[in-house]
Input
Amino acid sequence: MSRKRILVVEDNEDNRRILLYRLRKIGDFEIVETANGAEAVAAVEESPPDLIFMDLKMPVMDGWEATRRIRALEQGRDIPIIALTAQAMAGDEQKALANGCNDYLAKPVVDPSLVREKLERLLKFS
Output
């Protein structure tokens, strides 16, 4: 089986490092990093990943707009997207799901079992 390609879209370097650390502990993934939504859309157009972790609040283009644009792409329609947000407010998860995300994760991502569960479910990975 080929390595799963994961796109991590996160403008905060510390949060990105934490998530990358968690992913590397879980499996041998090909990880692509971008720091804003515009870079994420370009990365999907160039080489679609198997899954995306999408920060919702970023400069240049936020995760809401990036998710909409990715969903509008032929190659982005079915990619699982996990929304990431530090300001976890009531209703954020429902809003993320309604806006095209498949799942939701609060930052910082400290629970590796939660990341593993989402990967196993969305990537059929174990």
